[in-house]
Write a structure and sequence with these properties.
Structural class of chain A: mainly alpha
Distance between the termini of chain A: 19 Å
CATH topology of the largest domain in chain A: MetI-like fold
Number of strands of chain B: 9
CATH superfamily of the largest domain in chain A: MetI-like
Number of domains of chain B: 2
CATH class of the largest domain in chain A: Mainly Alpha
Strand content of chain A: under 5%
Largest sheet of chain B: 5 strands, antiparallel
Number of helices of chain A: 32
CATH superfamily of the largest domain in chain B: Periplasmic binding protein-like II
Largest sheet of chain A: none
Oligomer: heterodimer
CATH class of the largest domain in chain B: Alpha Beta
Radius of gyration of chain B: 25 Å
Shape of chain B: globular
Number of domains of chain A: 2
Helix content of chain B: 40-55%
CATH topology of the largest domain in chain B: D-Maltodextrin-Binding Protein, domain 2
Chain lengths: ~725, ~325
């Protein structure tokens, strides 16, 4: 069983010829002496560094700007002054903005806000739970239904009913619109290579450009409030869906398509009757990923007055109150796991699949941040397949059952519109047993645990920070950022070439040129140093955890929930504890990045280890190899492809935390993006920093991708 | 297999569609029972909607909570809060989604853009709060090294402030990306042996002071008043060369302290001209740093809700609230 199939590997297994573009240019098994070349390049770099360091580093002061930044400021000013009267900005975008606001408000009146003239929404909590349960039952089966009911009750009990309804509305609306736009685009990209090549850079940009950079301009274009919140959510959530749709359609075996064509199907028929149904499961994974991405924007929406759970999270951050931020953060985690579980169960239910645990099927084709086709909480979904088995009823019988059950649901909805206690979630004061279970007690618990930890280990953690900074961060940063810009650029191009071959040249050179031209060379090099070190540490942790998980089911079951939680919890939640443990500094920024990137890398490593054929492992063991020999000599080398993929994903996840790192002392590009969001005169500089981050991301992704293609042989 | 999958899809569409239709039907019916309790006093019609920007720091939240509370209870306004950064809130007054900003820290560039050029925002007078920006040390340091509060002695102590981020120089921790800082220029022009390190957020600054005081480690950082954190820890300001008018005109050559800020209120032009009693309330609103810190402390330290914190203060300070309500017609 191989959990991890790159398109190449898949094609290899099936004996299908690769297209020219996917074939690496090197022959199989040729020894390229990569290690020696790397050492040589670094040695030359060090010599030149000794000669030239400190010159031409292109450093820029905190409040200083370049002509390009000012130019961006002027564009912004122009839109501010003339936008409202302009046919495009005021007219077209203005209408889109107000349309989006009305759409969100309509749903808010239904579920979360007092509707016109009333004091409660149209449907109270009881009605929402009944409806949600009914829909989940019909789509995904009884186990999911139980989970949904419990999750919704948790939202209410913790006192975040309205906020969670708002976040749900934004997430689901964004995903619905994603499907409307994303599916056709994905289909078009699957049909034509040139369309795909034209659109891919935009998707790369949408996924790597930090949201902070376009919050203000979008608030300018679409107005403050739910419209902008919806649109930024959409921008971040749509790329995974498009990429995965394309990937799914392309993965339909050529022979099947040929056979269908020979039967005389038209293109439209082929799409509707063969390709879409066969790619359906993958597309659902795409929807699932879009949902997770949308949810991760919940905390950003609040900066432009978007409704939802981001507001209490940010309030906690403002008050320096860990518990206050953590409780709504946990609500987001519960919501993510529930939504993930429903979509997975729904897709599994309609298609009985013999394959188990499609944990990740991503490959170099869909590598950019957040595009891992990954089924989130395995521990929660594992039983779904079994539990979701349908009762043996005829379709007519099933529909009848559904209609019968609709009656009590509608009664519940009616009741929730009639009685105040069933409309607003009750406060439970004076209730036996349940009264003390609320957000305050949970907040207090979290705060006490954090404070205790901080009091007892902060001296140790601060010492770790100082050592790592001195030994790892300072030397690498000095090499990258104190080299003259031309030396660092040459070195990076050379390293890219040694690792990934000539195909890396064009993207590396273009990315570096962009970074140079936006005027933030030095800051980008500092960011690059931190990114590389964070990725290194991520991989160390991921290999340790991943091997343990890959070798032991029980370890896997124990660790996986923590990985899931850290993957979806908003980073704002753990900023304050991270600051308490490590103080302000670059290392703290790295810690935040590690917390976010370790889960994905670990899961990929674990899947890779598990993918090594058990017979091989048995054979090695039978000749008397120790456990460490088995891991070091067999399992890790055989999971090499997974390790490279994990590194790539880890790298991009780390990069997506650069801005968050800027909030805790990471400085450089992340801080510039944040200050550009906050200071009027630094807007252009912030946008330039965001462009630099995107360029850095694309450069690193391309190098890693081509390295992966080579290592995969 | 294809047929089965197709049937599944149709089913999903059917379910989603039927739920959608059902919800639409419900929405069409309108609120059945609840509209009866919708009235909130006779003043409601007079004031109408009052949208207060809620900028992201606790001191501001205190202003917003108290003004909002008074507007709702004494004027019967329908108060809503617009969360956003300062920039975004200014934009909101320009585009008509925000009525007022209750605490504004200078922002000469935004003032020029919106008040002078676009004329969409008007000044609504001072809040009575005095804003101070400067360099601060934790209390234990001021106690142990009393002369540290004079900038001339900073170089003497520079080695104390060394961190992993500042190399062989002392660290000056800068902070919130929202505020303009002259610190790099100051360090250079005052010939201080320090390096500016960006903390990146208010949370970073506050947490750093907490750790420094707890572990008795050295810290010199950019901070500001009014700030609720002062009620928890009395930070001590380091005196830089005194501010004189125009000494900060050239940002690169600045070698003096930050100017004192008289924090002011802003209103959108449209709201100011609307004759709403809430506009009068905003104009009248004035209080002291201590007042603000008191409410901010209720919120940040005691964990009270904004409304509860506002109510507690308003109930205890009826005399001040009466002053604010003059000319609004509220009894």
């Amino acid at each position: 069983m191989s959990d991890l199939l790159t398109p190449q590997a898949e094609a290899r297994e099936k004996g299908v010829a690769l297209s020219k573009e996917e074939q690496p240019y090197v022959e199989v098994g040729r020894d390229r002496h990569t290690g020696w070349w790397l050492l040589g390049t670094v040695a030359v770099w060090l010599v030149l560094f000794a000669l030239f360091h400190g010159h031409d580093t292109r450093a820029l002061g905190l409040q200083n700007t370049t002509g390009f930044h000012e130019w961006l400021n002027h564009r912004r000013d122009w839109i501010q002054l003339h936008g409202p009267d302009n046919w495009f900005f005021g007219g077209v975008l203005g209408h889109i903005g107000s349309g989006a606001t009305n759409l969100v408000t309509a749903f808010q009146n239904l579920l979360s806000l007092p509707s016109l003239g009333g004091v409660v929404p149209q449907i109270g909590w009881l009605g929402v739970i009944a409806l949600a349960a009914w829909v989940t039952w019909a789509l995904a089966g009884p186990r999911s239904t139980a989970l949904v009911v419990v999750a919704l009750l948790v939202f209410g009990i913790l006192g975040y009913w309205a906020d969670s309804m708002d976040t749900l509305i934004l997430t689901l609306l964004a995903v619905a619109i994603c499907c409307l736009i994303g599916l056709p685009v994905g289909i078009a990209m699957a049909r034509s290579r040139s369309v795909s090549a034209a659109i891919t850079p935009f998707l790369d940009g949408m996924q790597t450009m930090p949201a902070f950079a376009y919050l203000t301009p979008f608030a300018l274009l679409f107005g403050i409030g739910s419209a902008t919140a919806l649109i930024i959510t959409l921008i971040y959530a749509i790329p995974p869906l498009i990429r995965i749709t394309e990937h799914g359609l392309r993965s339909v075996p050529e022979t099947t398509v040929e056979a269908a064509r020979s039967m005389g199907l038209t293109r439209g028929q082929l799409l509707r009757q063969v390709q879409l149904p066969m790619a359906r499961r993958t597309i659902v994974v795409g929807i699932n990923q879009a949902m997770m991405a949308a949810l991760s924007m919940a905390t950003f929406a609040t900066f432009v007055n978007g409704p939802g759970l981001g507001n209490p999270v940010n309030l906690g951050l403002q008050n320096n109150n860990v518990g206050q931020a953590a409780v709504p953060g946990l609500v987001i985690v519960v919501m993510a796991i529930t939504l993930d579980r429903i979509t997975t169960a729904a897709s599994e239910r309609s298609e009985v699949l013999s394959r188990s645990g499609v944990a990740s099927v991503s490959g170099p084709g869909v590598m950019l941040a957040g595009v891992v086709l990954e089924k989130l909480p395995r521990w929660a979904t594992e039983s779904a397949g079994k539990g979701a088995k349908q009762p043996r009823l005829t379709p007519a019988g099933r529909w009848t059952a559904r209609l019968v059950w609709l009656v009590p649901v509608l009664v519940a909805v009616y009741l929730s519109r009639t009685f105040l206690g069933l409309a607003n979630f009750p406060t439970r004061q004076g209730w036996p047993f349940i009264a003390p279970i609320d957000r305050r007690s949970l907040q207090k618990l979290i705060n006490n645990v954090t404070n205790w930890l901080v009091d007892h280990i902060d001296k140790l953690t601060l010492a770790i920070k100082n050592d790592v900074t001195r030994v790892l961060i300072d030397p690498l940063q000095s090499l990258l950022a104190s080299s003259p810009w031309w030396l660092a650029a040459l070195a990076l191009v050379a390293l890219g070439y040694v690792l990934g071959g000539w195909k890396t040249l064009a993207p590396t050179v273009v990315s570096l040129a962009v970074i140079y031209l936006v005027g933030l060379w030095n800051d980008t090099m500092v960011t690059l140093a931190m990114t590389l070190i964070a990725t290194l540490l991520v991989m160390v942790i991921a290999v340790l955890l991943g091997v343990a998980m890959g070798r032991g089911r029980r370890t896997d079951t124990f660790i996986r929930p923590f990985l899931d939680a850290f993957q979806v919890i908003p980073p704002f939640v753990y900023l304050v504890p991270a600051l308490a443990f490590f103080g302000v500094g670059r290392f703290t920024a790295i810690v935040a990045a590690i917390a976010y990137a370790v889960p994905i890398a670990t899961k990929l490593v674990a899947d890779g280890i598990r993918g090594v054929s058990p017979t091989t492992v048995e054979a090695v063991r039978s000749v008397g190899s120790t456990r460490w020999q088995t891991i070091g000599k067999v399992q890790l080398p055989m999971a090499r492809e997974a390790l490279v993929l994990a590194t790539n994903q880890g790298l991009l996840y780390v990069l997506s935390m650069v801005v968050i790192g800027g909030l805790v002392g990471g400085g450089s590009l992340g801080y510039i993006v944040v200050s550009g969001f906050s200071q009027d005169q630094l807007f252009g500089k912030g946008l330039a920093a965001a462009i630099a981050i995107t360029a850095l991301g694309i450069m690193l992704d391309r190098i890693a991708r081509h390295t992966a293609a080579r290592a995969g042989r | 297999m294809a047929r089965g999958a197709l049937r599944g899809k149709t089913r999903m569409i059917a379910i989603v569609a039927s739920v959608g239709l059902g919800l639409a039907g419900l929405a069409g019916c309108g609120g059945t029972v609840k509209s009866a309790s919708g009235d909130s006093g006779s003043g409601a019609k007079k004031c109408g909607n009052f949208r207060i920007a809620m900028n992201p720091w606790v001191g501001y939240t205190a202003d917003g909570a108290v003004v909002g509370y008074v507007a709702k209870h004494d004027l019967g306004c329908t108060v809503s809060y617009v969360n956003g950064k300062e920039e975004v809130s200014w934009q909101g007054m320009n585009s008509g989604t925000v009525d007022t900003i209750l605490e504004n820290w200078g922002h000469a560039d935004l003032t020029k853009k919106y008040i002078t050029q676009l004329k969409s925002v008007v000044d609504a007078g001072q809040t009575g709060n005095k804003g101070i920006i400067g360099w601060y040390v934790p209390p234990w340091m001021a106690e142990k090294y009393p002369d540290i509060t004079d900038w001339k002695n900073l170089n003497k102590y520079a080695s104390l402030f060394k961190t992993s981020e500042s190399g062989d120089k002392g660290q000056l921790l800068d902070g919130d990306p929202s505020y303009v800082t002259n610190d790099e220029a100051l360090v250079k022009n005052l010939k201080l042996n320090y390096k500016v390190v960006v903390g990146g957020s208010e949370a970073g600054l506050i947490q750093s002071f907490k750790s420094a005081e707890k572990n008795k480690t050295a810290l010199l950082a950019y901070f500001y008043e009014p700030q609720w954190f002062f009620s928890e820890m009395k930070l001590v300001k380091v005196n830089l060369p005194a501010y004189t008018d125009g000494c900060d005109a050239d940002a690169a050559k600045v070698a003096c302290d930050y100017p004192p800020y008289n924090l002011n209120k802003l209103m959108s032009k449209k709201f100011a001209d609307s004759g709403s009693p809430a506009a009068t309330l905003v104009k009248n609103f004035q209080w002291t740093n201590d007042d603000q810190n008191e409410v901010a402390e209720y919120i940040a330290k005691d964990g009270m809700s904004n409304e509860a914190a506002a109510k507690k203060w308003v109930d205890a300070n009826q005399d001040k609230v009466k002053e604010w309500l003059k000319g609004t017609g509220a009894s």
